[in-house]
Design goal:
7 helices
């Protein structure tokens, strides 16, 4: 098969193209136009929401079925307040960092924002239960909620800092 002039020229000058790569904005625009970001983030969002809902349901069923609550000492309550304040501050700082890095007034990914709002609503339910019936199990569920929200924000920071990286 005979090569045309363009193909021959490209083969002869291939080294000049090997060290160059398109800008991040170009890749972001290509991904946006192809709908890759929306589809992958939506799938991830759906998975995270389902996992959080299952976790919340399981914890709620366990707490509903548990008739005896383990007593918590005042020092444990104070320690938990400090840990809770730390993680809530981390969540606030990470959210502000994402907003600053993305140059927007809110979280750039609406699915992530919705997931975080849902997780916060679950946290409020757990917090109300903890105030009425303090127990180690409820504290653990609250801590898990805070850790999941922190993890979601960490993934979002990675996405904002490097938009070509796709989270799994």
């Amino acid at each position: 098969m005979k090569k045309d002039k363009l193909e021959t020229w490209f083969d002869n000058n291939r080294e000049e193209f090997e060290d160059k790569s398109p800008s991040k904005n170009l890749w972001r625009n290509i991904q946006f136009k192809m709908g890759w970001n929306n589809r992958n983030n939506s799938e991830l969002s759906n998975f995270m929401w389902k996992a959080a809902a299952i976790l919340f349901f399981g914890i709620s069923c366990y707490l509903y079925g548990a008739h005896q609550y383990e007593p918590i000492s005042q020092s444990q309550k104070e320690e938990f307040k400090n840990v809770e304040a730390y993680y809530l501050n981390e969540i606030k700082n990470k959210t502000n960092l994402i907003i600053k890095l993305s140059g927007t007034e809110a979280l750039p990914n609406p699915a992530t924002d919705l997931d975080l709002r849902r997780m916060d609503a679950m946290y409020q339910v757990l917090k109300d239960e903890y105030q009425q019936n303090p127990s180690q199990k409820i504290r653990e569920a609250m801590m898990l909620n805070l850790l999941i929200r922190t993890d979601i924000l960490n993934d979002e920071i990675i996405q904002v800092e490097n938009p070509t990286t796709q989270s799994m």
